[in-house]
Fold each of these.
Amino acid sequence: MNLEKPYIISVYAILRNEKGEFLLLRRSENSHSNPGKWDLPGGKLGQEETLGEAVAREVWEETGISIVPGEIAGYVTFELPEKKVIAIVYNEGYVIADVKLSYEHTEYAWISLDNILEMKTLPAYFRDFFKRFITESKKSSEPPI
Amino acid sequence: MNLEKPYIISVYAILRNEKGEFLLLRRSENSHSNPGKWDLPGGKLGQEETLGEAVAREVWEETGISIVPGEIAGYVTFELPEKKVIAIVYNEGYVIADVKLSYEHTEYAWISLDNILEMKTLPAYFRDFFKRFITESKKSSEPPI
């Protein structure tokens, strides 16, 4: 088979501060994809890596924060000009740490969920992910029947 | 967060014979999930494994066929009673090999695509996957504009 656009696997992490706000990073203006847009920490899975190793490496490279890979919170899929991406999103829970950006991002912010859902510069696949994430978190915090 | 149903990652493989038929396995009647239903070779990703290692191990365990992990053909997602599954499907291309089943399956068959799309005992998420797979294969075999 010779699909024109190969699939690749990426990993992303959601991290929250003590107020429950989520960490987002703004992509550099000369990024290959989504320049200047907001983003989650994360990136492409290496051939020789486990998913957990990849998410810890990407979070470390892009934020200077050390994590122990948490639970999987869900997935998003999207298309870039040359590939289709299946992205596994880890829930890293709450972190207390300084953020040290890499060259890939120009800015970071801790943003409340309500504000995330209003953001025009966050790709739609991540906005939709946060909507689902909240629905599922609410469901699971309801008392068992 | 305490989602009631955790996500797990699985890997599956599509393998074809020289006629282009796909290898399906029938799950044992005492399987925990989907007993007696048809299935693709594959299973759960181990914590310490890469995706490629996992798909090669599962195919070997369930069919006795050695593969070198191929391209990713896509993904399926589904829910089981206790978990939600994100399954990455590898395209292993054409194989010439005898199939040796494990205890997990009771039968195997090489089945043409037309027949796969008619099968009532293949879970809908795999049937839908094959539909998408075909659409994408056709697109990519069209001459470039």
Note: The beta strands of chain B are 7-16, 22-27, 38-39, 42-44, 71-79, 84-94, 105-111.
Amino acid sequence: MNNTSAMDVRTSRRNLLGQATAAAAAISALSLSGCSESAKRPFAKKASGGLIADGDTILLQGDSITDAGRARGQENNPNDGRALGGGYAYLIAADLLCERADANLKIYNRGISGHKVFQLAERWDKDCIAIKPNLVSILIGVNDIWHKLNGQYNGTLEVYEKDYRALLERTKKELPGVKLVVCEPFVLRCGAVNEKWFPEFDGYRAAAKKVAGEFGAVFVPFQSAFDEAVKKAPPAHWAADGVHPTIAGAYLMARTWLAAVAGARA
Amino acid sequence: MNNTSAMDVRTSRRNLLGQATAAAAAISALSLSGCSESAKRPFAKKASGGLIADGDTILLQGDSITDAGRARGQENNPNDGRALGGGYAYLIAADLLCERADANLKIYNRGISGHKVFQLAERWDKDCIAIKPNLVSILIGVNDIWHKLNGQYNGTLEVYEKDYRALLERTKKELPGVKLVVCEPFVLRCGAVNEKWFPEFDGYRAAAKKVAGEFGAVFVPFQSAFDEAVKKAPPAHWAADGVHPTIAGAYLMARTWLAAVAGARA
């Protein structure tokens, strides 16, 4: 399942630069376009379910990038616009609920602003296991380094990797058959993100990719998607403070996630 | 410019039913997919700007369907996720700001819940003219009939048409060269929408299409998009109360709007 990452990097690049290949076109079509492309190409038709099966409960987890101001009061309602927040989780849900309207999907967002891996673990029973998701997607890591750089947190890269591994281990154990999606932490080079973050931040990205591989999770290559995007418009167009995506950034994330997850083989 | 409506109806149908034609594929690709399709097909490449030019200021106007809970405090900020609300306006903006990241677009939402055409007119100086939009998109009409059916408003279909004509007349006069988009009012047959609405509601849709034609506006055929959609999932999947779209409904609207506007010739 890991060989989707290289493919996805190429796909994401090609989608943005406008250089199509049949595969890229098929996968980009699956991202946020109508059904017509998938009906047109046998490859795309086979791939059209990807990791998401009819009837699936999908959970998006993480920090503020996932949270995106979601309404906590409605968090128990699946597919609720307010409960999905104003970021990539909302965009993913909107796409899936339209493009797969008859698939009876239930999509939840339990991202919480400011969280690091250990904080996910602390609430994992309520905010993951209890939901009984068929697919769990996690985007976590930027606060693990950011808060450390700010002196607010004494975790290290090793702690991040260890915590993440334990979280996925536990998830697999308590939800047999669960489909895992590990999203690459990313930053844009502007705002709060400065030279102090590097090269250390690259280690967090590598650690996320490593644990994804260990658990057979789909890896969503957000950093390379943004690295290509900044060739078209400056970093602040995608995330004004370098960390929190604009709506353009959120859209790019949703497209990248859908390509990786909808295009992935179960 | 009016011959896009018939094309759009066919396109919307094919996108949803998965039966592609080259034109449908090209236009669906323009809706919410990556750049790769437009680079692949000369037709699509030519059409890729559609009605939207680099540097355009785009204004989305209407009632609660457009409003979708937007944050009033940020309404003067273009491209602001909170100010764009949680509906089709947000989705359109996210697509455009990602797919046309280098186009320097500025997108505003000034929809207000509960409004009818005359209420748009009352605030048109502040909420349209002052923004100096290059492209104005209006979705209005459902309250003109709904409030009438509820006994809260004594306007008629004739008043709706007259008011709408006057509004577009004024817009063209005060914003020479403005590009107009008239969105078809629509309903789903569930929730608050019952037999009392028909056949009268069809008159409102026809009136919107008529004034669109009179002013050379792009007409966005939302009703037919939803008429096809309900073949895949019940009305409530698209708008629980028959009027206010779910996120699936909002996504379908955004895709339909982008096909009509991005595929339209300037």
Note: Residues 3-262 of chain A form a domain with the Rossmann fold fold (CATH 3.40.50.1110).
